Amino acid sequence: MNTHATRRAAVLATLADRGVDALLVTHLPSVRYLTGFVGSNGVVALSPDGTVLVTDSRYTVAAKAAVDEGTQVRIEGVDALPAVAQTLAGMTPEGGVVALEAAHITLHRADELRGVLTTLGRTTRGETGIVEDVRVVKDDAEKALLRESARINDAALARVLAGGLAGRRERDVAWDILSALRDEGAEGPSFDSIVAAAGNGARPHAVPSDAVIPDDTLVVIDMGAIHGGYCSDMTRTIPVGDPPAKLREIYDVCLRAQRAAVAAVRPGVACAELDAVARDIIADAGYADHFGHGLGHGVGIEIHEAPRLGRNAKGELASGMAITIEPGIYLEGLGGVRIEDLVLVTDDGAEVLSHAPIASHDD
Ligand code: ZN
Ligand code: ZN
User: Fold this and answer.
1) According to DSSP H, which parts of 123-244 are helical?
2) How remote is the CA of residue 340 from the centroid of ligand 2, in Å?
3) Ligand 1 centre from 79 Cα, in Å?
4) pLDDT tens profile 205-262
5) How far away, in angstroms, is 149 Cα from ligand 2 center?
6) I need a surface site. Which of 95, 104, 255, 344 has the fewest CB within 10 A?
């Protein structure tokens, strides 16, 4: 079975447990995952009877080239909903249940589909996590793409840092990252890069500004590449000159927390427990109130996907998950630090995919 057929079979295997006969996939990253199709409009109807990709005429050639023989392509007009409903009804037994992706369909479209399917003798039900639960564990093809995406990201950062940081505007460094990612082979950035020096570093999601990066501070750089449709994500906090003692202190605490969390990664560890490994170290150092966000998140076709690593996160790690480990400490007015690696959960630990050097005061 090819990669996409294997993934579809894994999803189909879970439908019966949910009491569902067919699934309409409306989330584009999941459409790509299950069929290989990439475009701005496409839905997948999936049942034990088969797989149908419904898209429009802009994608006639691309869709046929992307899918395997197990997926039928149907080209419809812009208002494809009636046709999609007919397709789903044809793949579902009389009185059967069609699941809709509750997190990825508008109420308007769901109502319209429900209307047509009801007249055809089928019921609809909103479900969450059907495809996501399969996507959360990466297959070998995905792991290879993630490794290369991370390698591109490492190389791009090295290029940018070779030009130095002090005296340049944050915004210019951010543009430099974009071109370095392209030069290293990325299809694009996986998100808008963050370049945040001195006080701006205290904002976890700072937007690069016109501010000139001064001497003697920390610069938070958070960046990612897309390769083969897969995202990478990495943060390095770069000391420029001789940062003040307080910033050096939070840097060391954050680094200890990050290393402890990476060392604790293995299958079976609860997501909330992993978060606590880093959070406890930061709290013990007196900075509990300065680490507001979660420890990390899953990464794949989407830059933020399951699992979520946070204080109240559910579930546990499993071999094959791709996650970030990114504790941070943020001091308003002074600066911030975040250190983020992309890691794969292996059978007995972690494979760290981010290889860009991490500054340490020991060296
Ligand atoms: Zn990041
Ligand atoms: Zn991240």
Assistant:
1) 130-135, 140-162, 170-183
2) 7
3) 37
4) 999 999 999 999 999 999 999 999 999 999 999 999 999 999 999 999 999 999 999 9
5) 14
6) 95
Which ligand has the shortest distance to the CA of 222? 1
- How many Å lie between the centroid of ligand 2 and the Cα of residue 326? 7
- Which ligand ends up closest to the CA of 194? 1
Domains of the chain in start order, with CATH, are 3-135 (3.40.350.10), 140-352 (3.90.230.10)
* Per-residue model confidence (pLDDT) at position 362: 55
Q: Which ligand is nearest to the CA of 153?
A: 1
Sequence-distant (6+) residues with CB within 8 A of 348 are 266, 267
Find out whether 89 and 120 touch, Cβ atoms under 8 Å: yes
Q: 134 alpha carbon to ligand 1 midpoint, in Å?
A: 23
Q: DSSP state, 101?
A: E
Is residue 137 classed exposed, middle or buried when 0-12, 13-18 and 19+ CB atoms within 10 A define those classes? middle
Residue 235's closest CA among 303, 183, 305? 303
Q: Calculate Rg over the CA atoms of the chain.
A: 23
- State phi, psi for 17 to the nearest 5 degrees: -60, -30
Q: List CB contacts of 151: < 8 A, sequence separation 6 or more.
A: 353, 355
Give 323 Cα–ligand 2 centroid separation in angstroms: 8
User: 37 alpha carbon to ligand 2 midpoint, in Å?
Assistant: 26
Q: pLDDT tens-digit profile of 201-221?
A: 999 999 999 999 999 999 999
pLDDT recorded at residue 361: 62
Q: Is 332 helix (H, G, I), strand (E, B) or coil?
A: coil
Nearest to 229 by CA among 105, 331, 144: 144
Q: From the CA of 234, which ligand is nearest?
A: 1
Q: How far is the CA of 308 from the centre of ligand 2 (A)?
A: 11
Q: Is the pTM of this model over 0.70?
A: yes
- Name the band, by pLDDT with cuts 50, 70 and 90, for residue 360: confident
DSSP secondary structure letters along 65-96: HHS-TTEEEEE--S--HHHHHHHHHHTS-TT-
| Residue 71 alpha carbon to ligand 1 centre in Å | 35
